[in-house]
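Exercise: predict the fold of this chain.
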Amino acid sequence: MQEKFYITTTLPYVNAEPHAGFAMEIIEADVLARFNRNLGKEVFFNTGTDEHGLKLYRKAGELKMDVQAYVDQQAENFKQLKDILDLSYDNFIRTTDQHHIAAAQEFWKRCEAAGDIYTKIYKVKYCVGCELEKTDSELVDGKCPLHPGVNLEVIEEENHFFRFSKYQQALLDLYEKNPEFVLPKNRLKEIKNFVAGGLEDFSISRLKEKMPWGIEVPGSPDHVMYVWFDALVNYISAIGWPTDMEKFNSFWPVVQLAGKDNLRQQSAMWQAMLMSADIAPSAQIFINGFITVDGQKMSKSVGNVISPAEMVEKFGIDGTRYLLLSGGNFGEDMDITWERLTEKYNADLANGLGNLVSRIIKLGNEYECKFNGEIKISNDFSRLVASMEMGKCLEYIWEKVREDNKFIEDNKPWELAKSDIKKFGDVMMKLFVDLNIIVQHLESFLPETSAKIKTALETKQIEPLFQRIKV
């Protein structure tokens, strides 16, 4: 039976347009999906949009729009990423889809049947930006550190709660038995410390009279589901749960990607919810750092948001993919500016890979050199991909690019062709072998570029891959 592989991004909230941070996450997922397809696995790659909650309800009101019409409009911005970034996802789920709504309600019933949902009146400080409750210890100068420009709200009402506290030991056992459940390791340590410090039950509903935009709670028509409870269920509803259990059982568990601001929801809250519903935990969770611009987190209010569409307009699709994948070590914050992006593009792509390919193809065309062997991806490279170390993967490839550009300068094959034809043949064979190695390793990362180089190797004709851009 063909081995299956399921990967998902988080579902971005549709209150704003896509930014470079989410673009990096979905490109990483795309690389992992393509790489596993190339290994012969049946891949299911899921992404989509999170479309319930207070922020969206209020924004639609500000615009005097029907909420469904507003989220329909906003979801299109994220659907367009498929073409903008050359993505290969198999499924685009929206939390307003009828199948997802039915799945979320069934999931609620399973948790309720397990005795893990109850009601109480509570009073809490709430960040609309995060759609999360905040304790005083999490605040900086009385504000949420992730949304310092958003005033906290005090909510006092009767809500349904999930018995998060019940799952403290089960979560600690999960982390202990699976030391790579959350990567990078510092994020696993962070969530272990959070859970070990004690868990508080969290609210999973809102009064419909105050916030009607959400999925109705089964058996409690005065309430709608809290946005996080509903949205997390997409990871199972996307593969058929609970109506197509054959499909679900064949693909579950899932590999998840998320940003560091989602660590608690993805690796603790969601895992406890799965345990409550008697579903196995996720397979693995990769936690990204932020993309910052001149040291500041991207924000519309600050005016420093860089969009993937803007990057593609300047650097092209594969240029954008390369720049977002190669910016640093996995899990660490990456600081970007247009100037630094342009310098890296010119150095690595225009002057590096583009120059190497042009020289090899030109020499090969002129002197009838060719390589028809089979190239295998190295185990070290495969391990880097599986660990989501995309920056190290590309550095692995670019070491070969730099080595071969230097090899050409040192050996001057255009002169050898006139003075030592045997050595010329040896030099060109090494270059053709290396270029084939580079192409095979690049295939999941820069698919368009890889295809162009393959064509050039077959036809001995090539157009410039990456035009130099002025800083």
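Check your answer against the key: The longest strand covers residues 117-127.
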